[in-house]
């Protein structure tokens, strides 16, 4: 029977992390490209509704994650960890590749958003089974006194997956140009996933089963009905509910606020140039990612509870000041335009199949005294608008780094709640039902409470717009996040212990 010494803990971590990172990459390229996908797959008679529908389609993948946790968690507790998350990897990679092939709304109408939704549901089911398997697999190879440290490497994969997705998008975008990327280049990151998944499958095929689970299976002590044991027994169901409402729920909203809502906020509410948005998020994630491992390591020393709850409390107290500052940094009403530097440029392009027909691209550039630049690009054919206009604010160097700092602080909150949580969840439940029991609260907390954060927050913002205040309250979306994190903090502070150790 393979053991930790034969396999090597770092081989185990690497094998698990590479596949999990790629699954997160597949999952997040959709969210990272939400603005473009809303144009590609939804009718454009109301761009705001189209964008909200894109966010809801993105959220649909999160909503079904608990069902994936039940299906694959049960399979993982009966058949084994290794083969279960091989299946989830294939499902995730296949569905991502298909999204890259789906024709646009202009080509096939409402069949486009329906197909995208189906693929998102498959992605959500697959991810629902992936995380619990990877975290359990690493934890079951780890000594108890280093479980937080070793499992924290798995925790980095969600953020690194987002990081890789943004880097791939950025490279594709800058290489082919903005117009080509919007027309068809956005498909490249989706199609590229097939190569990454192939590499990951090759790596995972060489993995051995978890030694703890293999021993349990050899002794005939695996659970015949993990679902019944996990949720039908009062004492275990109590721990499942405590894991959800005392930890995972708050962790979920902090995670998605600090990364996805932050990205959506500076892109849609602050109207910052999309390429610059990618740079801001990439740098923030790059600076923040090592802290996942730090807080995982620290949780081995002082316990998991107060590190996780501390991250939630900091979010509750600091989000409104942080987002107020983010909004002010990009607020053109507080800047002075240098009117003499206003430029309008026209570029005329003839159509290959109809030379007499010309596409006119008009770029209007406004420059402000703090070096902020605002560009608006519109297109016309024979004097009539063609497509939607693209407007973006390019921040000055100092404002850019202020924005990086503000999002980095939010990522620190994320690392506090997320770094120790894999070890925390693993220790709550016995080996025979661990995959099933830990997966459900994690994916309800992250998939439902966390995954809906961008869509709910955007809806709150849209609802805040009135006749008296047509711009709305830019901080309205934070209400949901703060309430959920505060409730979770109170429950966790009262009922959680600082250390659990179920074997």
UniProtKB/TrEMBL annotation:
Domain spans labelled Major facilitator superfamily (MFS) profile: 12-503
Keyword terms, alphabetized: Cell membrane, Membrane, Transmembrane, Transmembrane helix, Transport
Membrane topology designation: Multi-pass membrane protein
Pfam family, one: Sugar_tr
PROSITE patterns, per the entry: MFS (PS50850), SUGAR_TRANSPORT_2 (PS00217)
Matching InterPro entries: MFS_dom, MFS_sugar_transport-like, MFS_trans_sf, Sugar_transporter_CS
Location relative to the cell: Cell membrane
Transmembrane feature ranges: 49-71, 83-102, 108-128, 149-172, 184-203, 239-257, 277-299, 306-323, 403-428, 440-457, 477-496
Name used for this protein in its record: MFS transporter
């Amino acid at each position: 029977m393979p053991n930790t010494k034969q396999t090597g803990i770092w081989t185990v971590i690497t094998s698990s992390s590479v596949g999990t990172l790629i699954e997160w990459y597949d999952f997040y390229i959709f969210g990272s490209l939400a603005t473009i996908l809303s144009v590609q797959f939804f009718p454009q008679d109301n761009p705001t509704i189209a964008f909200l529908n894109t966010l809801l389609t993105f959220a649909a993948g999160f909503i079904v994650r608990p069902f994936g946790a039940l299906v694959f968690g049960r399979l993982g507790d009966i058949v084994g960890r290794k083969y279960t998350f091989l299946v989830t990897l294939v499902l995730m990679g296949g569905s991502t590749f298909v999204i890259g092939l789906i024709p646009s709304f202009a080509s096939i109408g409402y069949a486009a958003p329906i197909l995208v939704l189906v693929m998102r549901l498959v992605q959500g089911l697959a991810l629902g089974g992936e995380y619990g398997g990877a975290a359990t697999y690493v934890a079951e190879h780890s000594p108890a006194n280093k479980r937080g440290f070793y499992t924290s490497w798995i925790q980095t994969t969600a953020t690194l997956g987002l990081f890789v997705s943004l880097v791939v998008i950025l490279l594709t975008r800058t290489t082919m140009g903005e117009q080509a990327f919007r027309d068809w280049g956005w498909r490249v990151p989706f199609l590229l996933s097939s190569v990454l998944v192939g590499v990951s499958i090759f790596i995972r095929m060489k993995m051995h089963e978890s030694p703890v689970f293999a021993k349990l299976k050899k002794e005939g002590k695996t659970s015949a009905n993990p679902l019944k044991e996990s949720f039908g027994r009062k004492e275990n169901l109590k721990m499942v509910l405590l894991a959800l409402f005392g930890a995972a729920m708050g962790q979920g909203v902090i995670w998605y606020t600090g990364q996805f809502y932050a990205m959506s906020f500076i892109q849609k509410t602050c109207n910052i140039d999309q390429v610059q948005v990618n740079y801001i998020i990439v740098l923030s994630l790059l600076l923040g990612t090592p802290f996942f491992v730090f807080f995982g390591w620290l949780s081995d020393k002082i316990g998991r509870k107060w590190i996780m709850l501390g991250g939630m409390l900091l979010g509750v107290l600091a989000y409104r000041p942080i987002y107020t500052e983010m909004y002010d940094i990009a607020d053109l009403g507080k800047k002075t335009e240098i009117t003499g530097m206003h430029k309008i440029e026209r570029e005329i392009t003839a159509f290959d199949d109809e030379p007499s027909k010309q596409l006119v691209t008009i770029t209007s550039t406004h420059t402000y005294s703090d070096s902020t630049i605002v560009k608006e690009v519109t297109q016309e054919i024979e004097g009539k608008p063609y497509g939607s206009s693209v407007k973006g604010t390019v921040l000055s160097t100092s404002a850019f780094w202020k924005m990086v700092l503000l999002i980095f602080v939010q990522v620190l909150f994320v690392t506090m709640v997320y770094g120790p949580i894999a070890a925390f969840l693993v220790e709550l439940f016995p080996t025979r039902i661990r995959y099933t029991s830990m997966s459900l609260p994690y994916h309800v907390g992250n998939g439902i409470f966390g995954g809906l954060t961008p869509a709910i927050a955007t809806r709150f913002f849209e609802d805040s717009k009135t006749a008296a205040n047509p711009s709305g309250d830019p901080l309205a979306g934070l209400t949901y996040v703060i309430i959920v994190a505060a409730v979770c903090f109170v429950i966790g502070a009262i009922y959680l212990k600082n250390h659990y150790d179920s074997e």
